Every structure is written in structure tokens, then in C-alpha cells.
Amino acid sequence: MNDRPKARVAVLISGRGSNMAALLYASRAPDCPYEIVLIASNDPEAAGLAFARAEGIATFAQSHKGMKRAEFDAIVDAELRRHAVEYVALAGYMRLLSPGFVAQWEGRMLNIHPSLLPAYKGLDTHARALEAGDAIVGCSVHLVTAELDDGPVLGRIEVAVMPGDSPDTLAARVLIAEHQLYPRMLAELVARESSPDWLLGEVRRRALGLPEAAEKLSHGMPAFHIAGGKVFGYFTYDHHHDGVTALLVKASGAEEQAMLIERDPDLYYRPAYLGPSGWIGIRLDGGDVDWEHVAEWLARSWRTVAPKKLQGLTEFIA
Ligand code: GRF
């Protein structure tokens, strides 16, 4: 993993930027899988910007005032792309995002929130938790979706409420937990695309979603088959000590195999042993896997082996 280039991350801030600092300092560990390449803010006065400049990180600051939400987000988006950013970390970014921007970065944009989500979305989380008499509060890192503070939670840290806590004393303690959680979750997110376990989980979810699909070990590989019938997909990880992580599916034959490989030699290959019987390898280790494409291949491969009685079900799948 250490020989992979570090993932390029931008942090969006509106204020103090202590989480940004935590992300940055964590990135200085030699084995950290990400680097911070840009700090952007919708407030040119944000204290975190001065800090970023002192650290020699590229900054971008523009006030959103007087601009439509989508218009402003398009400017930020262009800046992110100019810096070849791959992941976006929101850290106290006090802007609601336009749906277009969220869609552009889906799965690659995360946020930190000072509550144990799904509890206390929105503002004043600590005051609300104290008001409710909670004994345990905390913070959460989640993927950003169109709904505020609502995306899949990647991780949380719990913090005990102490007698006499005020919203401020509680916020200060939760902030310490935030600084622990955020760098770890960001590192996990950027590293997971090179994790065979994570890739297998993604393939499995899609393969087992097909009618009557089941899993077994075959030729030492996780294999997806139609219950009591034929295999339509293999997950291969370093199988021939070649370091390759890939999905094997049924192509129509040698001609199609050759055509696919010629069209995209970084994505497709002819697998050893199974190649001669028409299987094609789809690499999953190139980063940025097109999961819709993987799902389409699985469905197609399923159709080639499904018995007649199941073929009628194909209208329900891609
Ligand atoms: C943090 O409490 C974070 O959870 C929330 O906004 C605050 C930002 O603080 N989203 P900082 O700017 O990172 O110091």
C-alpha cells in the first residue's frame, strides 16, 4: 500500500479549522494514505486559512455572498478539479451544498459532526444533548448526501458527559475526540479501494442481489453461482501471486475477449485457466472502480448461465 500515491484531499472550512489541522498533522505520518493539497473557504476571513498558508498549503477563499448556491459550488468544484482533488473533507464548512455538487462528489466527500448521529443533526448539538439529559454524547464522521448530516456513518467516538458540563466544556472535550476520529476515518475511506476485503464486499453485495445467487469457494476463489447451478462470477485476489484483484465473468468467447482487452487493456485481461473457456477478468485494483459497470457485467454473466426457468426473472435485473 505504501507504494501507492497518496490520495489528494481538499478540506473545506468556514472558521477556526482545528479539524483541518488535525487532518493535516495526521497526514504527515509516513504511512498516512492521504495528503492535503488544498484548503478552501467560503469566508476569506476564516482563521484556518492563515494557518494553512503558514503551512504552505494551497488555499482558495471566496465569499459566497450575493451568489446563488449552485453558482458558488461550481466555482469551488472547478478549484477542486484544478488541484486534481480526489476526496473532499468538510470541516466546519457552514454552507448547505447544492445537489449537483453533492452528486459530483458522492462517496468521496465526508463531514464531521459533533453528535452521535443519527441523534442531533444540525446546530447546537451539545446544548440539545444536555437539555435532554444525555449521559453519553460524541462525534461522527459520515459520507455527505443531499440531506443535512444524514449520509452513511463511517465511524463515531463516544464522550461521557461530566457533572456541571456546559455546552462549551462539552464541545471542547468532544473536539478532542473529533481530532482523533476524523483523520482515522479519512485514512480508512481513501485506503478501502485498495483493500481486497472491501472490494470483495462490494462485489458480493451486487452478485448476491441477483436472483437465486449464492456463494461458495471454487478453485480457491470466492465464487458466485446460481443455487444448485453454475458459477457466474469469481473474485480473484493475488491468486497466481500476481497481485491482481479482479472479477472474472463470462464473455461471449475469444473474439469478445480480444476486443475488450484491445479497447481497455488496463481494465480487462484474459485470466489464466478460465480464459480459454471464455471468462474475462475485470481489474478492481486500479482505483475508482465503476461499480455500475461491474453490476452490469455480473447481471450479464448471470444471464448466460441461468437456467430457462429463471430467465424470466431477468427483467428485474440490470
Ligand atoms: C466542529 O465541532 C465540527 O464537528 C463541526 O464544526 C466544528 C468545526 O470546528 N462540524 P473546527 O473549525 O474544525 O475547529
Tally of distinct domains: 2
What's the helix count? 10
Question: By CATH's scheme, which homologous superfamily of the largest domain applies?
Answer: Formyl transferase, N-terminal domain
CATH architecture of the largest domain: 3-Layer(aba) Sandwich
| Bound ions, cofactors and other small molecules, one mention each | 5-O-phosphono-beta-D-ribofuranosylamine
The shape is elongated
Strand order of the largest sheet: 3-2-1-4-5-6-7
Largest β sheet strand count, sense and barrel closure: 7 strands, mixed
CATH class of the largest domain: Alpha Beta
- The residue ranges in which pLDDT falls below 50 over 5 or more consecutive positions are none
Helix fraction bin: 25-40%
Q: Could you tell me how far the N terminus lies from the C terminus, measured between alpha carbons in angstroms?
A: 34 Å
How confident is the prediction overall: mean pLDDT?
A: 93
Radius of gyration: 23 Å
Strand content: 15-25%
Strand runs, count: 13
Structural class: alpha/beta
Textual characterization of the structure:
The protein folds into 2 domains: 7-194, Formyl transferase, N-terminal domain (Rossmann fold, 3-Layer(aba) Sandwich); 196-316, Aspartate Aminotransferase, domain 1. It has helices at 18-27, 47-54, 69-82, 99-104, 125-131, 167-192, 196-207, 254-263, 291-305, 308-311; strands at residues 7-13, 34-41, 59-61, 87-90, 109-113, 136-143, 153-160, 213-218, 221-226, 231-237, 245-250, 268-269, 279-283. A 7-stranded mixed β-sheet has the order 3-2-1-4-5-6-7, with helices on both faces. The chain is built from 10 helices and 13 strands. It is α/β, with parallel strands linked by helices. It starts with 6 loop residues before the first strand and ends in a 7-residue tail after the last helix. The model has no long low-confidence stretch (mean pLDDT 93). The structure holds 5-O-phosphono-beta-D-ribofuranosylamine. 5-O-phosphono-beta-D-ribofuranosylamine (GRF) is lined by residues 13, 15-19, 91-92, 112-114, 175, 178.
